[in-house]
Amino acid sequence: MCTWDLAIPAAGSLKRKRSVIRSLKDRLARMNVSVVESGLQDVHDRARVSVAFLAAHAAQADAVQESVDRCVAGARDAVIVGNSSERF
User: Fold this and answer.
1) Sheet containing 34-39: which strands, arranged edge to edge?
2) Positive or negative CA dihedral for 48, 52, 57, 63?
3) How far apart are CA 7 and CA 81, in angstroms?
4) pLDDT for 76 beyond 90
5) 51 pLDDT band (50/70/90 cuts)?
6) Which among 86, 82, 87 has a CA at the least distance from the CA of 72?
């Protein structure tokens, strides 16, 4: 499970923020991971997005996490200000 705190400086409204987050969630969902906006829903210039996935072994988990990290880092109009990950 991975979580990112994002700053969305160009979002002057919740509507614009939702557009940025929806675009990111759509791209992540194509990677066969579960995605949710997990916090800061009422703050127009910040977001928290979490991703969960299952892997058969550690190497596969590392590869998926690296791909997801690249996708989040490349998100338009969003800047990563914090992140965390856990393995169960």
Assistant:
1) 34-39, 46-52, 2-7, 79-85
2) negative
3) 6
4) no
5) very high
6) 82
Please report the sign of the dihedral spanned by the C-alpha atoms of residue 5, residue 7, residue 12, residue 18. Answer: negative
Q: Is the pLDDT of residue 75 over 90?
A: no
**Do the Cβ atoms of 34 and 52 come closer than 8 Å?**
yes
Tokens of 17: 């923020």
Q: Which residues make beta-bridge pairs with 10?
A: none
pLDDT in the model for residue 2: 93
How far apart CA 34 and CA 50 sit, in angstroms, is: 8
The H or E element that residue 60 is part of is helix 58-73
The owner of tokens 């109009």 is: 77
Measured CA to CA in angstroms, residue 42 lies from 1, 5, 45, 59 at distances of 23, 14, 9, 37
The encoded tokens of residue 30 equal: 């194509």
